[in-house]
Specification:
Order of helices and strands: HEEEHEHEHEHEHHEHEEH
Number of strands: 10
Structural class: alpha/beta
CATH architecture of the largest domain: Alpha-Beta Barrel
CATH topology of the largest domain: TIM Barrel
Mean pLDDT: 90
Number of helices: 9
CATH class of the largest domain: Alpha Beta
Low-confidence stretches: 11-15, 21-35
Distance between the termini: 52 Å
């Protein structure tokens, strides 16, 4: 009996040490995985309103319900700059990070979204094409954009100068003319936004999500730090910083549909990274 007790007194401390070592290794693996697999969901909206006016409208009450469910499900809404810098490894990117972007500069951003931005202190990035501002009947004015900027929660960035379909322009123009056209569409909005709003637009949203290696190189040459396209998935460090995917959000996505899409995107991003 004494011999068995002696063996037990030697055996159990060894087991405890082994279990502790395994626990440390598993914790390190989990820590390394979380650090090695940053990803974020970038959402893109277009228009808001009490009813669905067209295919790109999201009802305002649906948007509010989506925000509430994102918070309940543990997502953190962060500025787009946090996502860009986090994917580049410059700042920590919180788990379940979500950035909200809105394209085109539609007047409902001012009438319907601005009150929510103020109430929720919601970080939002607007991608606008300056040719429409204070000109098109559907668009905001420069004064309204100034008011949005004054909230401290809104970043205003470039969506080219007049939102062309670059595939059509490539077919229509010769090589040199096309390159000049692309340069003007990328450079002019930066110049106008600096003059009108005093902002340095260093992000670009590709119209219709159209991009290629030549366009990405042109955006970098003009001075953009990042550009955004479309894609039903999370952005990860494996993506080109000039082709970061965004989830297109329309009213039909709803609340549960949004959460389902983001959960699928998280799983896919985690599986795609080492």
């Amino acid at each position: 009996m004494r011999q068995m007790a002696g063996r037990a007194s030697t055996f159990f401390p060894i087991v405890r040490l082994l279990l502790q070592a395994v626990g440390v290794v598993l914790a390190l693996i989990a820590s390394n995985l979380s650090q090695a697999t940053p990803s974020a969901a970038i959402l893109v909206y277009h228009r808001f309103g009490p009813q669905v006016a067209d295919s790109m409208t999201t009802r305002t009450d649906v948007f509010v319900a989506q925000l509430a469910e994102l918070h309940r499900a543990g997502y953190t809404i962060v500025p787009l700059a946090t996502v860009v810098d986090g994917l580049a490894g410059h700042v920590p990117l919180p788990p379940k990070a979500v950035a909200i972007t809105v394209d085109d500069g539609h007047r409902t951003v001012y009438s319907d979204l601005l009150p929510i931005i103020r109430r929720e202190q919601l970080p939002v990035t607007l991608f606008i094409y300056p040719s429409a501002i204070s000109n098109a009947s559907y668009a905001m004015s420069w004064a309204q954009l100034q008011e949005l900027l004054a909230t401290g929660n809104v970043s205003i960035q470039s969506h080219t100068y007049w939102h062309p379909d670059l595939r059509i322009e490539r077919r229509r123009l010769d090589v040199d003319a096309y390159r000049r056209f692309v340069h003007d569409q990328l450079e002019k909005p930066r110049r106008v936004l600096r003059y009108r709003l005093g902002v340095d637009a260093d992000y670009l949203a590709w119209p219709f999500g159209i991009h290629d290696a030549e366009l990405e190189a042109a955006a970098k040459t003009v001075g953009y730090r990042a550009a955004f396209t479309l894609g039903e998935r999370h952005a990860t460090p494996h993506d080109s910083p000039f082709a970061l995917p965004r989830y297109m959000i329309v009213d039909g996505r709803g609340v549960s549909g949004l959460i389902h899409s983001l959960q699928a995107g998280e799983r896919s991003a985690a599986g795609a990274l080492p």
